[in-house]
Design goal:
This protein is mostly helical. The protein has one domain. Helix content is 79%, strand content 0%. The chain contains one helix and no strands. 0% of the residues are buried. This is FbpB family small basic protein. InterPro entries: SenN/SenS (IPR025004). It comes from Neobacillus cucumis.
Length: 43
């Protein structure tokens, strides 16, 4: 098997950044759902 090419630091930073942005969007969705559940129970 061929050894994968070493990535440059800039590439790693970009990948990390995009992953964090995706995760943040996912976390916001989860938080919204939890908040809606809490509000629904409070009423």
């Amino acid at each position: 098997m061929r050894k994968p090419r070493k990535r440059s630091f800039a590439e790693l930073v970009l990948e990390n950044k995009s992953q964090l942005l995706k995760d943040r969007v996912a976390m916001e969705k989860i938080e919204q759902r939890l908040e809606e559940k809490r509000l629904g129970k409070a009423e």
